[in-house]
Amino acid sequence: MSEKYSYGKKRFWEMFPGLLVWGTFALSIGLSFVKPLWVIIFIIVFDLLWLFRVVYFNVFMFLSWWKYNKVKKINWQLIIDDLPETKNKYHLIFLPTYKEDFEIIKATINSLKKNSFPNNRMIIILGGEESDHDNFTQVSKNIQKQFDGVFRGLFITEHPSGLDGEISGKGSNLNWMGNAMVDVLSKHFYEIKDENIIVSAFDVDTIAHEQYFSYLTYLYCTIENPTHVSYQPIALFSNNIWTASAPVRVGAFGTTFWLFGELARPDRLWTFSSHSMPWKMLKDVGFWQKDIVSEDSRIFMQAFFHYEGDYRVEPMFLPVSMDTVTGKTYRESLQALYVQMRRWAWGVEHLPFLVDGFQRNKTIGLGIKLKYLFNHIEGMFTWATAPILMFVLGWLPLWVAKGQTNAIVQAAPFTLEQLMQFAMVGILVSSVMALTLLPKRPSKVRRHTWIVMVFQWLLLPITFIVFGSFPAIDAQSRLMLGRYLGFNVTKKHRSK
Questions:
Q1: What pLDDT was estimated at residue 455?
Q2: Which end of the chain is more exposed for a tag (fewer CB within 10 A), N or C?
Q3: Residues 6+ apart with CB under 8 A from 23
Q4: Where are the beta strands (DSSP E) in 97-227?
């Protein structure tokens, strides 16, 4: 295959999601004026399918929520104390950081210190950036001073700027940290076998559940072929949820609920945000890619292709909590939320990688290939189009066909309204479930904020479009046009 052809094929698959989205919008608008009845029927069927999806999604979400409440009550450290095979397992925790405050990093490492798993089998690596040298040098010195001797090891790395083949971001920093730890482990911990090391790659504001590493160790020692498995916890963006703006809270919980739904269906689960994986796998695939934004999900596909499909994700029904996005003003918070959602939607960049990997690999079955491709394309397409089709463009053909005597046209407004009302049940379920996931209310937050926490879900149709469809369309359009997205560091602020 020539280099020119390979580039052309890659560009086609980069353009495909955006062309699909814009083609859908153009067709729905054009047909609304030419064949409004066709579009009305399509919208009714689409809304019926969406209602069905809301129902079964809520079932899966409830199953994960139920499992979460069951798992968090168990003393996993007490269980693994009785399992001899857990005694030689070690945890290597990666904490990449850029311009983060000392207090945020201190809180994260302090939570690791207080975890139920023995500190003397935990190795921490804090990785800064050369472009943040002065701040990171001071922060890392304070961290080393405060946590000296607490863990089996605490190491500091600094990722150089401007290396060839990289984009600035978490993936390139993690790659540097991983390669650095190969030398550290071979020099200081040569007695530990690769298959006995479990890696957790955390955002630097991640607070792991107190039983997280004990539960992770239990899974690693009891499931089949653990070195061919990544481990995905529940991601709660709740560290500062009480002081975040209402749209940001809805967006944060929406992401958690999406992950709840995926955790109940591990056959379609990819890794997301802070999660854990085998050290052996990371060495086998050459660590994280250095030239992409969505390294958290790409690392799963790297392993999936390296092991020719013999790799999967195991759900972890314990949480890791992180910060929601913030800004100095309400407007800045909303801007930060949009940027974060666009960065997550940039996961569309995986499509050319998937297509190329599946074409090269002759071992993975055709059914598995089609399932992964369909799930990825359909997920990105629905993310971008569904809210606009339901809440905006769905009403255009009704306006165009107004006055027609056709029975379908006459009944369509009532039918769509009823479907929307049924779908509101999902909003009610979300609002109730969100209350059960809230951390303790800070003393400085007023009591009546509970009421806001309930009624904020009325904003869902708006946030669904502004912070769902729009950033997804933005991401897919940029990829289509070759305007590649860089890595944006999320603004965070945590009130005391």
A1: 75
A2: C
A3: none
A4: 122-129, 153-159, 197-201, 207-208
